[in-house]
Design goal:
Number of helices: 4
Structural class: mainly alpha
Shape: extended
Number of domains: 1
């Protein structure tokens, strides 16, 4: 059976999104079990989940594009390293 390359890549991105949703649900559940009582409304929470999922979707397709543009598998793996370090780029050291 012939499977298109785009179907495999789309499946990986969708699986990544589902993993992100599961992680969000687990973190939220643990926070509520530990006694967190946020003042945000349900729509505010829904907006936060939407932004996180959209960022995960964008990052997933960006890594797919970087992997497709790479000439060798090693360079494809190394191309996503700056994305991993991106959240730490805005921090400032407090001394």
């Amino acid at each position: 059976m012939d499977v298109s390359r785009s179907a495999v890549l789309t499946g990986h991105v969708i699986a990544s999104l589902l993993t992100n949703l599961l992680a969000i649900a687990a973190l939220t559940g643990v926070a509520f079990l530990l006694g967190s009582s946020p003042s945000a409304s349900f729509l505010d929470w829904l907006g936060v989940v939407e932004v996180v999922v959209l960022l995960g979707f964008a990052a997933g397709w960006l890594t797919v594009a970087l992997g497709l543009a790479a000439r060798f598998p090693e360079t494809g793996r190394l191309a996503s390293v700056p994305l991993v370090m991106l959240p730490f780029s805005g921090e400032r050291a407090v001394v």
